[in-house]
Each structure stands twice: as C-alpha cells, then as structure tokens.
Amino acid sequence: MTISAQRIRSLLSRILQDMELVLVDINISPHGKVSIFVDGLQPVTVDTCARISRFLESELNREEQDFELEVSSPGVDRPLVFPVQYRKNLGRMVDVLKKDGTRLRGKMTQIADDGIILERESFVKDEITGRKKKTFVHTSLKLDEVKSTKVVVCLKQ
After folding, report:
1. Long-range contacts from 37-44, C-beta under 8 angstroms, 24+ separation
2. In angstroms, rounded to a whole number, what is the distance separating the alpha carbons of residues 93 and 108?
3. Is the distance from CB of 45 to CB of 93 less than 8 angstroms?
4. Residue 33 half-sphere exposure, CB side, CA atoms within 13 Å?
5. pLDDT (tens digit, 9 = 90+) per residue, 27-67?
6. What is the arrangement of strands in the sheet containing 68-72, beginning at the earlier edge strand?
C-alpha cells in the first residue's frame, strides 16, 4: 500500500486541530520520503514535530510501506499560505507578488480575513526644498489578488 497525501491529511486533521496547527504542505518523494510542514500562531517546536511524527508512526504500517518521515515548520523560504501564517507574521517585512505580476515590499501592519495592509516606503518631492522626502503609504491588498507572500529575512549588521 502506498502512502498518500490524502491519507496523511486525514490522519493529521484531528491532532493538528487539537494542537491549533495547520497543515501547510505534504511532499512525498518517489523514494518514500514523506515531508510534512505544519504551522500555527505559536512557534512550531522540536517537541511539537516529534509528537506529530510519533502519532503518524503509530498510524502508518512500516510492514506495508517503507518510508522516511520528516515533520517541520515551513521555514522562511516558503510562501505564506494560510491566514494563520499571515497573522503570525504581522509586523514583519514581506515581499508580495500579485497575480498581475506586480511586486510589493512592505511591513504587514494589518490583517483581515480577506486581505492585508502593507506599509511601504515612498519618496515625494518636497514642494519647498525640492528634495526628496521619505514618507509611508498604506496599500490594501485582497488575498485573492495575491499569488505569493514571503517573509523578508533581514540580517542586522
């Protein structure tokens, strides 16, 4: 019997709900490596991943299928998918790619069920001095017009 993403999703639905987590993605390689990515408002700890892994190990039969199991949080290189991930990253800098190809970068300042507000830097010409002056604009985006959103990792020097 082959391990399917649908079967894993079904097995995890209750335990993830109890742990207040969402299943972000499941990858199953042809060689039997099963990678599961979970997220939630609280940080996903090693203990959390171990608990999910132990649960799946108890539900899946190694006699029927040999597999390697890996459970982790998605990491900053993966796009935000669920509203809980947007809420978790409120106040952080994000790169947004809209479905029309437009790219925006800004601080995510507000989140609603159907959208986000970004605070973005803008430069305007001062009428008196003629010099450019930094200002901030707020851009409202509906989630259904967003293709992907990634958290910007800034390394302080």
Report:
1. 37/72, 37/73, 37/74, 37/78, 38/71, 38/72, 38/73, 39/73, 39/74, 39/82, 39/84, 39/85, 39/88, 40/84, 40/88, 41/84, 41/87, 41/88, 43/73, 44/72, 44/73
2. 6
3. no
4. 4
5. 999 888 999 999 999 989 999 999 999 999 999 887 887 88
6. 22-28, 33-39, 68-72
What pLDDT score was predicted for residue 104?
A: 96
Q: At what angle do helices 46-59 and 5-18 cross, to 10 degrees?
A: 130
Return d(Cα 64, Cα 51) in angstroms, integer: 22
CA nearest neighbour of 53 among 20, 16, 96:
16
* Reported pTM: 0.79
